[in-house]
């Protein structure tokens, strides 16, 4: 019984993380100008980020403002999902791009994106292209990667999406879980506790959480003028919650759905979407089903 209780307490415990005290670039402590990454514990001076080329022009003010909102800001390490890949995984992805004639650093139209997805589906031993349903799903993903409806998706957003698909395909679940930071686990735990009243939540609430990682801050929101991904639970009265009511209705289950999800299962089922919410881009890099 003691061992069981110990394990349960470990699961229930919410760790508290402390940010680093020195700038990751210059390793100097200047409290009044340091601002933190929302994913890892690194902190930065805006001047150091400018000098290293990680922020340019007028974007420094937006980064600083974003870093001090509830949403937060991802540093250049966490913003780049491509860095999660191993050397072998990166080689596999590059090889796929070459065989499918994708030009690096170029934006992609819907036609480009669908053609690539068809060609990628045919790689290996399969001669089948995407089904009609899969093509429709790919078109919905393209729209999620192009929230401003410009008719194309930027290369970093496309690369992040493809990196996530590769991680989903090649990594076992435990390997993906090890990629989460303490901050991300804290937010996930807060979301889980906000959804349910006990040790489990319903399947519908779990699916609701998968979408909640990508709710956007509206342009008129006073606290932030930049459209970025929101990570963690949102109050029902918030603009982001109100704007997504119709989407939430779609996620409601049928009366016959009765599966309940505990904390370990919740984290496993959300891990890829938590990782997908890291970039500062307004794009949804991996659209959940529904």
TrEMBL record:
Stored InterPro entries: EF-hand-dom_pair, KIAA1045_Zf_RING, Zinc_finger_PHD-type_CS, Znf_FYVE_PHD, Znf_RING/FYVE/PHD
Membrane-crossing segments per the record: none
Gene Ontology molecular function: any one: transcription corepressor activity
Matching Pfam families: zf-RING_15
UniProt keywords, alphabetically: Metal-binding, Zinc, Zinc-finger
PANTHER family (UniProt xref): PHD FINGER PROTEIN 24 (PTHR46453:SF4), PROTEIN KINASE C-BINDING PROTEIN 1 (PTHR46453)
Protein name: PHD finger protein 24
